[in-house]
Amino acid sequence: MIRRSIFIFVTLIVILAGCSNEPEKNSSKIQNPTDSNQSNEPEKNSNEPEKNSNEPEKNTSKIQTPSDSNQRKPQTPLTDEQILMKPPGRFAGSNFDEQKVQAVLDELSTDLTADQYEEELLLLLAEDYRPYVSTFLNFESEVTVNNPRPNEKVTLPSSRKLHISILLDASGSMKATINGKSKMDSAKEAIQSFTDKLPKNAEVSLRVYGHKGTGSQKDKQVSCNSTEEIFHGQGEQTNQIKTVLQDIKPAGWTPIANALKSVKQDINPETTDSIVYVVSDGIETCGGNPAQIAKELHQSKVKTIVNIIGFDVDKEGQKLLRQVAASGGGEFTFVDNDEALKNYLNKTYDKLRGEWTIWKEKGEGQANIQKEQKQGTINSTQETMQGLANKENSNLLAALKYLKTKKEDDFPHSELLKKITERKNFAWNYARDTGKRLYAEVSKSGNQVYDDIKDEGNKNIDDLTNKKNN
């Protein structure tokens, strides 16, 4: 019985000993750092209190390594524009009220740093530079002049569509000679010289009349019905006229009215300006009414001006041809030799050549005006910004003076004064330097455009003058 009791007692001790060791085993498992689910608990860092004792706890995390730090953005310095584009203070501009400013200053803490004081003062008194900085940022310093330019032989503006009709008398009387040269040859040379200088995008037609049959009565009908457009093209194609004129010989009668009537079918409906030059050495001989036809042309949808060039015409003929020109809204010009004919056509050409002079002078003026307007905007913006900087500085200094009288001796007066002075110099110099840079850019661009227009205009005027004299 005693032995059985001893066995039971020993067995109980063994069991109790086993139970007393189990909690220790589990406890060590829970405290194992590699298995712990308590990674965010303070205990995790309890073994490293001295490693970074002066740094915020968040800097101990691997996430905060220099390459991944989210703290970089606030450290990026602001650009000059970003600083000046900040909203204005509560009492900036017309909202300034010295008593209200002082009331707010009275509420400021007494232990602020110079940086904190500056921030508080700017929240109250910073002027609004935003409109002027925006003007500088968006300023277009390039001067541009885009007037339609005459090119080569003179080019009309694209909005104008000019049609020039030349009607050449090929009646038998054009065989007559002046100074050893036939009227027909003189007329051909003058027409070729004239058309070479027409606007290259003008529509040009050359029509002859009276070039068929003979001057006899039996051929009158054939001759009076003869009017033919032998060239129709652009001003840049007029070098072909010399070829088509070679086969034209003086022949029959003078159907001026019939030739004028045919002009209507030569004119493009989109034409905006139409001019007719009739070269004739005599009056209508086919019974037509050229004055009436000229009047109809002048009053048509495409208003046409009819000019008559009387080539060695007698006084009676001049009188009749003047009536035709007057009815057509044009002019009559009498020429009695080939040089006079060329000179008249060259005078007409001079009017067209004058488009280059007009283009040049207009462009030069626009370049100067645009340059001066841009420079005026720059100067105004610069001066306004500098005026705001002066005003802001005056208000900040007044606030500083007030703070000095209210705060304790440890108030950072000198440091804050330095910051206020730097603020003024920063805004003032930004306006000066930016304005100076943009002003120089505008001046360079404007002068370049002016010189380019002047050089191009003078070159083309000189070229055209040389063509005229050759």
Q: Rg to the nearest angstrom?
A: 49 Å
Number of helices: 14
Query: Strand order of the main beta sheet, please?
Result: 5-4-1-6-7-8
> What number of domains?
2
**What is the distance, rounded to the nearest whole angstrom, between the alpha carbons of the first and last residues?**
156 Å
In terms of per-residue confidence, which ranges show pLDDT below 50 for 5 or more consecutive residues?
1-71
Strand percentage: 5-15%
Biased composition (Polar residues): 28-38, 61-79
Protein name: Amino acid dehydrogenase
Domain VWFA: 163-352
Organism: Paenibacillus selenitireducens
Walkthrough of the structure:
The chain is of the alpha/beta class and 470 residues long. Helices cover 53% and strands 11% of the residues. The chain has two domains: 82-155 and 354-470; 162-336, von Willebrand factor, type A domain (Rossmann fold). The strands form two sheets. It has a six-stranded mixed β-sheet with strand order 5-4-1-6-7-8, with helices on both faces. A hairpin with a 2-residue loop joins β2 (177-178) and β3. The radius of gyration is 49 Å and the shape is rod-shaped. The N and C termini lie far apart (156 Å).
